[in-house]
Specification:
The protein is an all-alpha fold. It is about 85% helix and about 0% strand. The chain has 5 helices and no strands. The chain starts with a helix and ends with a helix.
């Protein structure tokens, strides 16, 4: 988490949105693995919004996958399935994840 936080700060200072939102998305993944599910959800949603706006499909898939994992751990199965379906949609569009 230390290096990710450094990346968040530096990319914000340098006004590098693309890098900043990659670090935000990564923060969500790290938070998921650390068990901080609400923080993970927040970071993943922020990162996913940017990746969707930029049509960055591989990272849209990553964001949706981990949001699905978060929702599953929170017991929100229907929401989890919807996020996993989005991952499948990206795969269908790109033939890659």
């Amino acid at each position: 988490m230390y290096y990710n936080n450094k990346g968040l700060l530096e990319s914000k200072l340098l006004q590098r949105d693309r890098q900043y939102f990659h670090f935000v998305l990564n923060d969500g993944v790290i938070s998921y693995f650390e068990g901080h599910l609400e923080q993970a959800k927040d970071s993943l949603n922020k990162g996913l919004q940017y990746m969707t706006d930029k049509n960055n499909l591989p990272n849209v898939a990553v964001g949706n996958y981990y949001l699905g994992k978060v929702m599953s751990k929170l017991g929100r199965t229907e929401d989890a399935l919807n996020y996993f379906k989005e991952v499948d949609t990206v795969f269908q569009l790109n033939n890659d994840i």
